[in-house]
Specification:
repeat, LRR receptor-like serine/threonine-protein kinase EFR, alpha/beta, Leu-rich_rpt_typical-subtyp
Length: 382
């Protein structure tokens, strides 16, 4: 009797395994996903090659079929993750992806997907991570992406996306990391999600002002990368007073002025600032010296004048300082050239006097007297 019970349990176990576990709509969506990828781009040893629908996608164990690239819910009925191996799959993202309504992660990074991102992606209401970086997606980012209220990471960088930023980006209330870098996006910066930690929009064709209303309420924002765009105008003092700001890269834009206030109560987490290769005029902002943790500062190749503030040389946290390519005058602070100095960077290509030729900081050489004279409409003064 005991052996008969064990035998029946064994048979029942295998019968259950033989039955389809995954919801039929999820299976059909997976089939459509695979069929939209060129067969010639699917190596025999790849994850996608193991997707053999003669077996159930959520059946375990996965010995020879569905060995990677897809994950299921604990009850083995729903597809929850698609994470492809980065081996060069080529194809389009099928609109039927919308049937995978329990999907939390969609990661197709480092492949050759092309065409538009389907607007039906808005049906993936449980999606937390959408990573399509380093593909060839084109067209605009669908406005429907802002319906993904659970989304925490959106990375569409390194594609060929064009058009304006989606409307109502700020409705993505769970979003913490947004990276749309290295695309062909145009237009202005729209209001940002309040819980954002990292913002990267570098190497696009975005333009206009960086306004306070865009960043209003972003108390958790730590990283801002807007370099290599066409932003212009004045960067207001409010920007560097964002309470959690740590790293800023606004290089290679067209900013003309920057306003720097002392941090409130002398407290700030700001560590690195890059404002190089803009069109910033006026004197060097002396108040940068009051940011207690600032270790890297670049204002290179702007249109700055006047002397180097003494506070820069007395700032113990400063390790990298790039002020080259401006029209700075006077004698640089001697502390920069003391034997125990730890500052690296460049003060070259300015109008400075007495910058020691044997110091790495003074390379490249200063501008000619004629250029400096023209810049100051006469003899440059300290």
């Amino acid at each position: 009797m005991f052996n008969l019970v064990h035998f029946l349990l064994f048979v029942l176990h295998h019968l259950l395994q033989a039955q389809a576990l995954t919801l039929p709509q999820d299976i059909s969506a997976l089939k459509a996903f695979k069929s939209s990828i060129k067969q010639s781009s699917i190596p025999s040893w790849s994850c996608l090659a193991s997707w053999d629908f003669s077996d159930d996608p959520c059946a375990v164990p996965h010995h020879t079929r569905f060995i990677c690239g897809v994950s299921c819910s604990p009850d083995a009925t729903r597809i929850t993750q698609i994470t492809l191996d980065p081996i060069g799959y080529s194809g389009q993202l099928t609109p039927l992806i919308s049937q995978l309504t329990q999907l939390t992660t969609l990661d197709l990074s480092d492949n050759y997907f092309f065409g538009r991102i389907p607007s039906s992606i808005s049906s993936l209401r449980n999606l937390q991570t959408l990573t399509l970086t380093s593909n060839s997606f084109s067209g605009s980012i669908p406005d429907s992406v802002t319906a993904l209220k659970s989304l925490e990471t959106l990375d569409l960088s390194h594609n060929a996306l064009s058009g304006k930023l989606p409307k109502s980006l700020n409705s993505l209330t769970s979003l913490k990391r947004l990276d749309l870098s290295y695309n062909k996006l145009t237009g202005f910066l729209s209001k940002l999600p309040l819980n954002l930690l990292e913002l990267a929009l570098k190497a696009n064709s975005l333009s206009g002002y960086v306004s306070k209303s865009t960043f209003d309420g972003l108390t958790r924002l730590e990283v801002v990368e807007l370099n290599d765009n066409s932003f212009s105008g004045t960067l207001g003092a409010w920007f560097f007073l964002l309470p959690s700001l740590q790293q800023v890269d606004l290089a290679n834009n067209s900013f003309t002025h920057v306003e720097i206030s002392k941090p409130a109560g002398g407290n700030s987490d700001l560590v690195a600032v890059n404002l190089g290769f803009n069109k910033i005029e006026g004197n060097l902002p002396a108040n940068f010296a009051d940011y207690p943790m600032l270790s890297s500062l670049s204002l290179r190749y702007n249109r700055l004048r006047g002397a180097i503030p003494l506070g820069y040389s007395k700032k113990k946290s400063l390790r990298r300082l790039f002020l080259d390519g401006n029209f700075l005058i006077g004698t640089p602070p001697t502390e920069f050239f003391a034997g125990d100095t730890e500052v690296t960077g460049s003060l070259g290509d300015n109008c400075l006097r007495g910058c020691p030729a044997n110091s790495q900081l003074c390379s490249p050489q200063q501008k000619s007297y004629a250029i400096c004279k023209r810049a100051y409409s006469g003899k440059p003064r300290s």
